[in-house]
What does this fold into?
Amino acid sequence: MAIELKMPALSPTMEEGTLAKWLKQEGDTIEIGDIIAEIETDKATMEFEAVDEGTLGKILVAEGTENVAVGTVIAMLAGEGEDASDMADAAPADPVPGEGKDVGRPDASGEGSEAEIAKPAKKSGVKDPEIPHGTNMQTITVREALRDGMAEEMRRDERVFVMGEEVAQYQGAYKVTQGLLDEFGPKRVIDTPITEYGFAGIGTGAAMGGLRPIVEFMTFNFAMQAIDHIINSAAKTNYMSGGQMRCPVVFRGPNAAASRVGAQHSQNYGPWYASVPGLIVIAPYDAYDAKGLMKAAIRCEDPVVFLENELVYGRSFELPELDDHVLPIGKARIMREGSDVTIVAYSIAVGLALEAAEELAGEGIDAEVIDLRTLRPLDKETVLESLKKTNRLVIAEEGWPTCSIASEIVAICMEEGFDHLDAPVTRVCDEDVPLPYAANLEKLALIDTPRIVKAAKKVCYRD
Amino acid sequence: MAKAPKNKTPRSPAENLDFALHSLQEELEKTKRYDASEEQLKHFYEQMLLIRRFEERAGQLYGLGLIGGFCHLYIGQEAVAVGLQSALTEKLDSVITGYRDHGHMLAYGIDPKVIMAELTGREAGISKGKGGSMHMFSTEHKFYGGHGIVGAQVALGGGLALAHQYNDDGGLCLAYFGDGAANQGQVYETFNMASLWKLPIVFVVENNQYAMGTAVGRSSAETEFYRRGTAFRIPGMKVNGMDVLEVRQAAEIAFTHVREGRGPVLMECETYRYRGHSMSDPAKYRTREEVQDVKEHKDPIEGLKKILIEQGNSEEDLKAIDKDIRKVVSEAADFAENSPEPEASELYTDVLVEEY
It folds into this structure.
C-alpha cells in the first residue's frame, strides 16, 4: 500500500515549516534511514529521514514552499511491488484533519472547565481523638516527643528507618534521635556522609522500593541541596505514574531561624514546600502535635516534609500518656478560643501568638489563636469558620512576608471570606531581608509579640 | 600552553596499570561473549528488533503530532538494555533509568501497546497518560522509571539497592545513566555511599558519545567512564555496548560480584545513538558519515543477524521475525492512536494517595 509522507513536526512547538530541499526525486529508491528532504523549522534545518522503504512517487509539495503545515502530505511512497507512477496526483495536499500538532487536545471552549473537574474529596469533620478521662499527663520536651514518635513507629513497623548526618553515633546534631541507635542498631539508624542531595535521593528511592525512610536534614537550610529529590522525585512520582508508584518518605529537621546563625542557616521553607502539589507539609508547635503528627507522617502513604524548630526543641509541654497518640494530618487546632480577632500561626509563631493573646486580653480584646499545624493541605475551613465568628484576622509567621503562608491565608480570606471581613487581613512576618547576625539587627528582623499585638489592635480599630 | 594530546588508543582496562580495580575486567577478557543458546540468540534478536521498530514508529508518530513534548529514541543502543536485562532475575531485581526509557521497558517484556499509548498521552497508557515519554513506571516489573532530571535516577537507584539490602532479598538494582549524567555531582555522592555500605547495585554508563550535543571529549576530563568509580573503590568494566553477547557476559560477571555482597560495580557500555538527542535535535554536532559508519560496521542488530545466519537461519526466517514485529508495533501504534484521552476527572487524581 502506498504510504503518505507527511510534513513532520520536528519540535514540540512546530506548527509549520519550509520544505527547503528535496534530496530524493520521484522514482528514487528509498531505504530506511535515507534522508529524503531538508525541512526548516523555526529553530533549525532538520533532515527528514525515511522510516519505510519503497520508491518515491509523486512529490506533492515543491521545494522552497514555505509555511507548510505539519501533517500535510508532501509526497507518496510506493511499497514493494507497487508502481510509483500510478499513484494518484489527487492525494490530499491539505493537512488531514486531526493530524496536525496537538491532535485530540480539544480547543472547544468550555470543555474541561472547572465545573466538570472533580477535585479530590476532603475528609470533613475529622477531629483530634478524644483523650480518655483520667489519662495521665506527662511533661515532655518537643525534642523527646519527636524521638518517642519515631521510636514507637519503628517498633511498630520494621520498614521504618532513620538516616541522616550524625543521627546515629552522635545521637543527633540536636539530639532528636537520641537513643535510637542503641535500641534499633545501625541497620535502622544510619549515619550518612555530608551529602544531602545524595542521601535525599537514596531515601526517596528506598521509599519507592517499599521502605519507610525518615530522612533527617541537620537543618532544612541544607535541604536546598536536596530539594530536587523532594520535589521532582518524591512529590511528583505518584502522579506521573498514574498512581502506581508511591513514595512514603518523611523529610524532617529544624527549619527557620535559630539564634545568631546568620542568613544561610535561618530560613523558613514552609511556603516553598507548601506550594508543591504532591507533598504533605507539617509544621507543629508543641509536644502534643510534634509526637502525634510525627507518627501520622510516618504512617502516611504520601511524601511528607516535617518542619521542626530548633528554638522549640527544648520547650516542655503536657502530653497525654497514650499507647498510640496519632493526630490527623491537614487539620488546624484552635489553641485558644476568642471572639474579637483571629490570630493564625504555625510553628514557633504559635507561642508568640499565644503570648500576644494574653496581652490583648489584658486590654479587653478576646483573641482566638489557630495553629495551622499542617501547611499543605491547608485547613482553610477552620480559618474561615473562625473569621466568620471574629470578622478580623491577623497572620503571624516567622518567615518572609512575600509569597508566604500568610499571603496564602490573605488570599483565602479575600476569595472565600470577604463577606465576613470587618477589617483588612493583616500579615505579621519577619522583615523582608536576609537574617542579619548582629544581635540588635536580628531582633529587628524577626517577628515578635509586640508586633502581633499591634496588628491585632489595628484590625480591631483599637490603636 | 596546550597540553600534549592524550593517547587516543587506551590499552585494555585489564592491562592498564594505573587502573587498579580491574579484576572484573580481567574476568571479562577471559571470555568476552556470552555462550547463548539458539533460543536465547533469537530472543535477543527479537527484543532488539522490537525496540528498533517501536522507536522508528514512535519517531513517525511524533512527526505526525501524535506524540508531543520531548521524545528520546533508543535506536542504536538496543544491545545494552537487552544484554543486561536478560541477565536479571525477574520479579526480584529492580531497574531504573533516565528519560530515554522506552527501550528498557520493552526489554522487560512490558506490553508495547501501553508504552505507545503513554507516548500519545492516552488513558490506556502505562501512567494513564499523565507521565509521557520520560515518566513511565511498572512497579509490577520492578521498573522504577523513567526520570526526567539528569542523574536523579542514580541516587534513587541507590535507594532501591538499599531496600534490597535492608530486606535481605538477594536482589540488586540496575541503574542506567548516560555519559552526560556521569558529570552530575549526585552520581558521585551515590558512588560514595553505595561503596561505603556495599549496596547491591550495578551502575551502567550508557556512553553514547554525546551529552545532548556535546561530545564526550568536550565535557569530560576523564572520558574513560569505567574508571570514575576508582576514587570510591568501585571496580570498573568497559564493555562493547554494540554487542549484545558481550554485554550479557559482562552482566553475568557484574551481577555475580554484586550478589556476593561485594558492593557496587561500574560498567561503561560504549554505544551510539543514531537519532538526535530528542526529536527536535538536528544533530549538527556530528557528521552524517560518522553516523553512517556506525550503522554499517557496528550495528547491534546486524551483528547478531550475522551470527544467526552463520548458525543456519535463513534470510527468510529473519524476515519473518521482522514482519511479526512490525505487526506488533503497528498494532501498538493503532492502539495508541485510537485510545481515548484521559477523562477530565483524572486531572486531580493521584496527586496524593490518601485523603486528608
